[in-house]
Amino acid sequence: MSIIEVNNLQKEFMIAKRETGLVGALKSLVKREFVKKEAVKDISFSIEKGEMVGYIGPNGAGKSTTIKMLTGILVPSAGQVTVNGIVPYENRQENAKSIGVVFGQRTQLWWDLPTIESFELLKAIYRVTDQRYKENMSIFQEILGLDEFINTPVRQLSLGQRMRADIAASLLHDPPILFLDEPTIGLDVVAKEKMRTFIQEINKEKEVTVILTTHDMEDIEKLCQRMVLIDHGQKVYDGDILAVKERFGKMRTLVVDLEDANSSFHIKGGELCKQEGNRYWLRFNRNEVSASDLITQISQTHNIKDLTVEEPDIESIISRIYQEGFIEKQTVKG
Amino acid sequence: MTIAKYIKLYFKLVSAGIRAQLQYRFAFVMRIIGMITAYTGTAVTMWVMLYQFQTLGDWNFFEMLFLFALSILSWGFCIILFFHFRSLDTYILNGTFDRFLVRPLNPFFHFMAMKFDIASFGQFLFSIVVFVIVSFQLQLEWTLGKLLFLLGAIVGGVLIQGGLLVIISAFAFWTTKSEQFYWVAMFPARNLTYYPLAIYPKFIQWITAFVIPFGFVNYFPTTVILNKETPYFPDYMGYFSPLVGVLFFGLAYFIWMLGLSRYKSTGS
Predict the structure, then answer these.
(1) Would the keyword Protease be found if you checked this record's keyword annotation (chain A) (predicted)?
(2) Is A330 a member of any domain?
(3) CB contact under 8 A, B13 and A68
């Protein structure tokens, strides 16, 4: 059996309808209307032990709702979930022992105390034996370099250090499954790169199954072989990351600001996909044409004021997948 | 997990909370000074008022001071153990409450053990000084039986007031904001305890005996210790304080857990 099984998972919320204006606000005090919102519509997937899976989608797609159901914080409206053989919402405390959770924006460490104290408290909470504690701490010190800031109060740590401490804290009790919610959010490029190496090493060292939600396409590309893409509470894609990259990763967008906002222009190899005033968006396949080639073409007939080349982000990949109908619901064998 | 292990863990978590609080020494000292000043102010107001009338109902100044001090003393313990339940709504709103749900512990226990507000030292100092003064003035004889009775009353008072804090916090599971309920319920209820219930209309006395049982926090126990009349009620009511406390707190815990299960199905 897979370590995580999700079948036809659904979650709907009743949300109070907010009326605009003072009159509306007063009206909703007396009589509130509720709107049903399906945060997760019908999601199924299974994850094998040791896999690293990117669980991605735009804001409000239902990512964190799914994670909350997997961690036992939320009870599903319908469908089945098992995590390590346990139904999380029925047996939340039991499930908590076999998962580690890192919410990138919220630390689980004791803010005002030296970092080491958080580890000692978590040791007591998860009832980690002295020996396991020692062994794990020495592994974390090696991989995550906790030594440099172990006696510094958490509130004085840099964001990168705090994330490292948070990941170590979530692994202290040797959970077979690790949920990482935006582990690189707000980090600078160097710290991001470091964080990715840590996650990779931990996955290798401890054979931890990792489920990663992120907005950063690079996180997924560097860490995961598989991604589950969801949008509007539904699975859009599930499978090999390479296939998506090959198909959409080669697309780039050239954004140019021209001095004269004139008419149409036709550039060989570039497809005009948007125009706002003097600004033009040109999509091109970087395997077929280079950016400098396009720029040369444009500059022959127009004066370029400014330009940038954009890599595809998750939002644009999702919209491409919708447009081009890349909805092969293939699942990695399991 | 066994009870013994929970108790051990409670002290571990609580001592971390105290160390965290002591990081902010200035705020800590200022709170203690502030509390003492505020309660002394209330006591002075009482004295000024009674200076004119000599008695309120058939309660003289020192008897009222005793009543007041008992209320402050159990409130002091209540602050230590439960005051942070007031900010449960903030935890829910900014999402930090979820942390309590991904740990292998009872969430009520875990939340309760997160803070231990020792700044209520001011309350203890105030109420103990007042007890000593009043004991001399009223020539109270403190037998072992009376001390045990007082202890029971304090336990009851802590559980009743803590219970109401817990119930108010649980509203956050339904409404996401619960701060306003504190001002609607806790504040008036506590203010009622500063004066003998006997001076209030029968209706209010009835509510504070049986609905929100704040009469058992200090009024009924004080009438037993000081041998005062209890209009509308039998004079042994004070003995029920610990029992009422346990029952009311049990109800509060039940409501809190009910709210939690609602939170788990709605998410906010």
Answers:
(1) no
(2) no
(3) no
- What residues make up the domain containing A279? 250-324
Instruction: Give chain B positions within 8 Å (CB) of A108.
Output: 99
Task: Please answer yes or no on whether B265 and A103 come within 8 Å at the CB atom.
Answer: no
The distance of A75 to chain B (nearest Cα, Å) reads 5
The nearest CA of chain B is from the CA of A191 a distance in Å of 24
Identify the band that residue B254 occupies on the pLDDT scale cut at 50, 70 and 90. Answer: very high
Which residue does chain B place closest to A123, by CA atoms? B9
Q: Would the CB atoms of A75 and B265 count as touching at under 8 Å?
A: yes
Q: Do B104 and A96 touch (CB under 8 A)?
A: yes
Would you list the domain boundaries of chain B?
3-266
At B92-101, the pLDDT tens digits run 988 899 999 9
A51: CATH: 3.40.50.300
d(CA A104, CA B266): 22
CA dist list (Å): B148 to A141, A275, B42, B187, B221? 53, 83, 28, 29, 12
- pLDDT value of position A322: 65
Q: Are residues A122 and A255 in the same domain?
A: no
- Give the pTM: 0.85
Nearest CA to B174 out of B81, B267, B40 is that of B267
H or E stretch at B55 = strand B55-56
Domain endpoint, select from A224, A246, A268: A246
Cβ of A121 within 8 Å of Cβ of B12? The answer is: yes
Q: Give SS3 for B268.
A: coil
Scanning B90-149 for CB atoms below 8 A from A yields 94-96, 98-99, 101-106
Does residue A297 sit in the same domain as residue A201?
Answer: no
Which burial class, exposed, middle or buried, applies to B56 when counting CB atoms under 10 A from its CB (0-12, 13-18, 19+)?
Answer: middle
First-residue to last-residue Cα distance in chain B: 29
The domain spanning residue A304 has which CATH number?
Answer: 3.30.70
Q: For residue range B121-135, what is the model confidence (pLDDT) as tens digits?
A: 888 888 999 999 999
Distance CA A87, CA A74 (A): 12
Residue A331 maps to a domain: no
Per-residue pLDDT tens digits for A296-325: 888 888 888 898 888 776 667 766 776 665
Q: Looking at mean pLDDT, say which of A31-35, A57-61, A183-187 comes out highest.
A: A183-187
Residues A234 and A262 in one domain: no
CA–CA separation, B113 vs B9, rounded Å? 9
Beta strands in chain A (DSSP E): 4-16, 34-47, 52-56, 78-83, 99-103, 177-181, 209-214, 226-231, 234-240, 251-258, 270-276, 279-285, 304-310
Alpha carbons B105 and A121: distance in angstroms, whole number: 13
Q: What is the DSSP letter of B186?
A: I
- Is residue B177 within 8 angstroms of chain A, CB to CB? no
Are the beta carbons of B156 and B143 closer than 8 angstroms? no
Residue given tokens 């490029």 in the structure block = A189
Chain B residues within an 8 Å CB radius of A73: 98, 101-102, 264, 267
Distance CA B190, CA B208 (A): 11
With CB atoms and an 8 Å threshold, state whether B266 touches A92: no
CA distances from B86 to A22, A147, A237, B100 (A): 29, 37, 44, 16
* Cβ distance of B264 and A89 shorter than 8 Å: yes
- Same domain? For A229 and A313 the reply is no
